[in-house]
Design goal:
single chain; 447 residues; alpha/beta; 3-stranded antiparallel sheet; 40% helix; 13% strand; globular
């Protein structure tokens, strides 16, 4: 019977038990499909009240770590590793921790752009029309401003080569749904974003992880897997890759493009962080075989749910033949404000401010933790030597971080953390938490 060691802390015992379940899943001690002990039996073994164990199991189920059926018991869910990334989003669960587990842009507490835009809309007489669905004219305007925005990424695309959607995650999902059949192999980085893993699971598309180095995926391994799997599609993040923060340089982009052409691979390029970096997208050297997907969420405003899929029209036609399915979920209000900000320079100004904030935080991480990489990144990939207990290390440092298991394709995951540098509420808070992590890394108590 699985029996956890509950950490001594000030938090309620049921939360300590939930943390123990999550940590066991992250270590591979509990695997998808494993059955947890009956609540009463576990409570007796740990000296807990049965109601405490019941409350812990309910909280673990709410966080999508486990599921249960009457008469069958409680089981670890297959999606637990990815779900664990979001398990502490209830602020009262661990108020003492600074949450660096989710990639969020820096938010300016003095920002007045949205307030000014809303005030202008209220005086323009347009508010009533924003209650309806997006009009054909507003969608055309959105396509035009996005095509102009993409010029900043070095891409010359007509408005007809742009599909609008409600965020990059919807864009990736729509692209995979339109281009792939269930059971079809998809090539991805060996460490990839939880959103890509979730899309593959939901669409029943088996993912095959391509080996990586300091410049992204390794061309020889991409070639090997393309031959071994006969895959037609690869989903890649060439710029400020999540979670490793690496970017392909010019030589690597050319090498990957050559492999893609040789095997007829279509690349779905997740460029969500691209505008924060200094390297052009893979689409700049593989325009005929790349669909670039991004949004304004990581660069302009996370709540402005305006995303886009851009590339050759023959591929767009397979994703959305009627040119309305992807835009159906768009908020008319978000489309209106997003288009205005892209037109009047607000988006560019906010991007410049975000890049400055990212650079300041990245330099701090370089100083305190030795962050590597040519480009400043909003997130840091931190290998931890010595087989440390990462959950204990993070708790001791007062942070919540994303573990390597969340990103690994397959069961082999490095001992590493991803820290979202831009999620900290301020530079001072980030400095204190990074100093605490650095202290824990050299502490013999956590070896």
């Amino acid at each position: 019977m699985w029996l956890p060691q509950l950490e001594s802390s000030d938090q309620p015992r049921y939360l300590a038990l939930v943390d123990a379940i999550a940590a066991a899943i992250a270590r591979g001690e509990l695997k998808p499909g494993d059955r947890l002990p009956p609540q009463r039996r576990l409570a007796w073994a740990l000296g807990l009240n049965p109601s405490t164990a019941m409350q812990a199991y309910r909280e673990a189920a709410r966080r999508h770590l486990v599921g249960g059926e009457v008469g069958r018991g409680t089981y670890v869910l297959a999606s637990s590793r990815e779900a664990s990334l979001f398990r502490l989003k209830v602020p009262e669960a661990h108020p003492e921790l600074v949450d660096l587990s989710t990639n969020l842009p820096v938010l300016d507490p003095d920002d007045g752009d949205l307030q000014r835009s809303m005030a202008a809309l209220c005086t323009s007489g347009e508010v009533a029309s924003l209650q309806g669905y997006p009009s054909a004219r507003s969608l055309q305007r959105g396509q035009l401003v996005v095509s102009s925005w993409l010029c900043g990424r070095g891409l010359e695309l007509s408005p007809q080569q742009v599909l609008l959607c409600a965020g990059a995650q919807q864009g990736v999902f729509a692209a995979l749904l339109g281009l792939c059949e269930p059971g079809e192999p998809i090539l991805v980085e060996a460490l990839t974003s939880p959103g890509i893993k979730a899309a593959g699971r939901q669409l029943r598309l088996p993912l095959h992880g391509v080996a990586m180095d300091e410049y992204g995926i390794v061309p020889d391994d991409l070639d090997r897997l393309a031959r071994a799997t006969s895959a037609r599609v690869a989903v890649l993040t060439p710029c400020l890759q999540n979670p490793t923060a690496v970017s392909m340089d010019a030589r690597r982009r050319e090498e990957i493009a050559a492999v893609a052409r040789r095997h007829g691979l279509l690349i779905i390029e997740d460029d969500i962080y691209g505008a924060l970096g200094n390297e052009p997208p893979l689409a700049s050297v593989l325009s005929d075989r790349t669909l670039l997907i991004s949004s304004l969420s990581k660069t302009v405003a996370p709540g402005l749910r305006l995303g886009f899929i851009a590339g050759p029209q023959k591929w767009l036609a397979l994703i959305d033949p009627e040119r309305q399915a992807t835009s159906w979920a768009l908020s008319t209000l978000c489309l209106r404000i997003g288009s205005q900000w892209l037109e009047d320079g607000t988006a560019a100004r906010r991007l410049a401010w975000q890049r400055e904030q990212v650079t300041r935080r990245w330099r701090l991480a370089q100083k305190l933790l030795g962050a590597a990489g040519a480009d400043a990144s909003p997130h840091l990939w931190l290998p931890v030597p010595g087989g440390r207990d990462l959950a204990a290390l993070c708790r001791a440092a007062g942070v919540e971080a994303a573990m390597a298991d969340v990103f690994a394709v397959g069961h082999d995951a490095a001992c590493a953390l991803r820290l979202s540098l831009t999620a900290a509420p301020s530079l001072a808070v980030l400095k204190a938490r990074l100093e605490a992590i650095a202290s824990q890394l050299v502490s013999p108590d956590h070896g």
